[in-house]
Amino acid sequence: MYIKLKKGEGRLLKSGGAWVFDNEIQEVSDDIEDGELVEVHDFDDFFMGWGFYNSASKIRVRMLCRHRKEKPDEAFFRERVRAAVEYRKNTVDMNACRLIFSEADFFPGMVVDKYNDLLVVESLALGIDRLKPMILRLLLEELNNIDFDGGSVDEKKNIRVNAEKNAEDTVKNTGFKIRGIYERSDAPVRKKEGMKPFKGWLYTAEKGFIDEPFNDMLREWNPDEDYPERAESPLTEIVENGVHYTVDVENGQKTGFFLDQKYNRLEIQKLAKGKSVLDCFTHMGTFALNAARGGASDVLGLDISELAVQQAAANAKLNGLENTARFEVADVLDALPQMRKEGRLFDLVILDPPAFTKSKNTVKQAEKGYREINREGMMLVRDGGYLATCSCSHFMDEELFKKVINQAAVSAHKRLRQVEFRTQSPDHPILWGLYSSYYLKFIIFQVVNEK
């Protein structure tokens, strides 16, 4: 079974990309079923690798491996799982982290996050979805057998930050004990693969793997249906940079928590001592609580979601920081101009908005949004204070994001000293050649008035 590219096509694939689009294909063999592995050939029959085929998707093939002699059997996937876990062991604190990051870990279309004793899987491609039971079983085995040395490593090296010696989160010579695996494959993009949304338990330590979801991968998720396996609690407590959070893997955004800002939040913790802080789009209070833990004099977190503000306040109380960090329901886009009119100033302003663009067709509109919000944020920074600003859209690339911020500074009559440029946490690896794997830009500036 094979597909053949048109002459002159496959340029992204040849430069390290992982997808073949429908308009790049010249020929498809007759015996291919959706979700199956196929050989990918160039126009001249040169072998380019193995990938999962799906005629229902504009991404016709998602590449799995490049070598003809590789056999994608259980041993093949066991090694990939081992490599993914070993990489996290060496680079991040594993209490809460992304264990598998889709194509960047060579698992096309699959994400697996670990929140203390729970795993959450998001499966958005048909081919990898069919292998989900095997991959998750291998992942459980690897986590159970993981061997740590029992020590902690300097936080500044961003390696396995062990924030609290007594936390039930870090280093255990007996491996990680996972009590459940929850699936959050409820994103609309799944329908573009010809797959129905699914949300529910796949595994509990008490019952083992639950057969029903694996026997009917395309079953529509019905939130009102009474699944007996829901007896397991979807709540768990994680520790990140010494800050405790309650995570709801069933109802939280994405898979329950935003893990990619882990060490960017730690930088805020280091910077915040003695400062008044404004955290915009605070969500669960993550940047705000890191600032408070770092010794900020006072912290205000804003979010348009009342539920997010309630969660942030609960997390502040969980950490004993409720007297330092407070949270308000507000539309940040309206609140910042109003604060400017009131003459309010802060020593540190944090802007962590949702992606303003999820398509190259809306980049121009997103530029305007990022420019305006950064301008308003800078206007609230006291002379000599700091601005931390982010973009989580890979369509807003690094060069364009910096350009927009500079335009905002000129408009606000501010000068920016770059303190640090950072990207996503190492458990969200940036695979060179795979443009979509690099999406998060995080910059800390000192903001000074024009002299």
CATH class of the largest domain: Alpha Beta
Could you please say which CATH topology of the largest domain applies here? Rossmann fold
CATH H-level superfamily of the largest domain: Vaccinia Virus protein VP39
Mean pLDDT equals 89
Please tell me the total number of domains.
Answer: 3
Q: What's the shape? A: globular
Class from helix and strand fractions: alpha/beta
Figure out the total of helices: 11
> How many DSSP E strands?
21
List low-pLDDT spans: 149-174, 215-221
Q: Under the CATH scheme, which architecture of the largest domain would be assigned?
A: 3-Layer(aba) Sandwich
Q: What kind of assembly state do the chains in view correspond to?
A: single chain
Approximately how much helix is present in the residues?
A: 25-40%
Which value, in Å, is the CA radius of gyration? 23 Å
Give the N-terminus to C-terminus distance in angstroms. 68 Å
